[in-house]
Design a protein that fits this description.
With 212 residues, this protein is α/β, with parallel strands linked by helices. The protein is 41% helix and 20% strand. It is built from 8 helices and 10 strands. It is globular.
């Protein structure tokens, strides 16, 4: 018998992909991480590309960045830029990159991307700059609507992220959003409902639970 969870994910993803198309974004479904890596490399295309990335446990824990370099592309490793001048140089490279790789904090059943950021560097490059944005998201990121997505991010994704970043927030201690201001990583709330540039944003949905 076919895995019922996999069938559910595939059916749900097919519905979301149709909504993404209406919102001028491309959507793809991959059953597992390995096939998602192959799709990522396929979407980057021929020739050496410069590729930036946003902070993401999905990317870090599952080898997506390694797949980019293994395919011969130039990964802009932002952690290597440390001084003020180097960081300015890195920002310039990222905004002019051929592609920007990231996950999304949530995606609604209607195809909207919902993200909450601290400094806003991740969402800024998603919104404007790189020629192509490729988003990798596990099906655990699906939410029924924008309100549910924000609730999910603030109470499920943000607490472990705050622990990872050593932020002294209420959610890091209680596991529940405290609507805090001090040391908050929930500074920028961005809902991407349509891609102004058709097919610039590409979403790879993965039939596994990935990231927070």
């Amino acid at each position: 018998m076919e895995n019922p969870q996999k069938v559910f994910y595939a059916n749900q993803a097919a519905s979301i992909i149709k909504k993404l198309q209406l919102r001028k974004m491309q959507g793809y479904y991959c059953e597992d991480v390995e096939s998602a890596k192959k799709k990522l490399v396929e979407l980057l295309g021929e020739g050496k590309k410069s590729v930036g990335y946003g902070g993401s446990m999905t990317l870090d824990q599952n080898g997506f960045k390694d797949a980019v370099t293994a395919a011969g592309h130039e990964l802009i490793i932002r952690e290597n830029y440390k001084t003020d001048e180097e960081i300015k140089e890195c920002k310039a490279k990222l905004v002019n990159a051929d592609a920007f790789l990231m996950s999304t904090n949530a995606i609604t059943l209607d195809g909207e991307l919902v993200n909450i950021d601290g400094r806003g560097n991740r969402v800024s490059f998603m919104i404007y700059g790189p020629d192509s944005v490729i988003i990798v998201a596990g099906m655990n990121k699906v939410a029924s609507n924008v309100e549910d997505a924000i609730r999910r991010i603030r109470n499920i994704a943000s607490p472990p992220n705050c622990n990872r970043l050593n932020c002294e927030t209420p959610c890091a201690k209680t596991g529940k959003c405290g609507d805090c201001i001090t040391d908050s990583i929930c500074c920028q709330f961005v809902v991407t409902r349509v891609s102004r540039v058709k097919d610039r944003i590409k979403v790879i949905l993965v039939g596994e639970s990935l990231g927070y």
